[in-house]
Specification:
This protein is an all-beta fold. The protein has no helices and 11 strands. The strands form 2 sheets. Strands 2, 4, 5, 6, 9, 10 and 11 form a 7-stranded mixed beta sheet that branches. A 4-stranded antiparallel beta sheet has the order 1-3-8-7, with no helix packed on it.
Length: about 120
């Protein structure tokens, strides 16, 4: 099993910044894809950003230029730096890990952390 624990959510004003952290219970060097998704009340969960095992990032169009995904292999942690936040960014943010093969193959999610953008 891969356990993921998010932290860093909170209340921020529009145009503010926030950094989310996701700590994994295993070495992230063995996780093929790490990412963040979000879900607003009454809406489906959407992918926000991913980073592959070789460091290649992808972003949803809605966050390009504002969000940055990164990882610290020594700390087994993936981050989501969120800048220029907008009210429409308000959602519960979930950390995600995908292992493509081996005994841990599968998809894993954290419990989520609330981000609220409001004046």
């Amino acid at each position: 099993q891969v356990q993921l624990v998010e932290s860093g959510g909170g209340l921020v004003q529009p145009e503010g910044s926030l950094r989310l952290s996701c700590a994994a219970s295993v070495s992230i060097s063995g996780i093929h894809v790490l990412g963040w998704s979000r879900q607003a009340p009454g809406k489906q969960r959407d992918m926000v950003a991913t980073v592959t095992i070789n460091g290649s990032p992808k972003y949803a169009d809605s966050v390009k230029g504002r969000f940055t995904i990164s990882r610290d292999n020594a700390e087994n942690t993936v981050y989501l730096q969120m800048n220029s936040l907008k009210p429409e960014d308000t959602a519960v943010y979930f950390c995600h890990a995908r292992v493509l093969w081996g005994s841990l193959a599968g998809d894993y999610w954290g419990q989520g952390t609330q981000v609220t953008v409001s004046s």
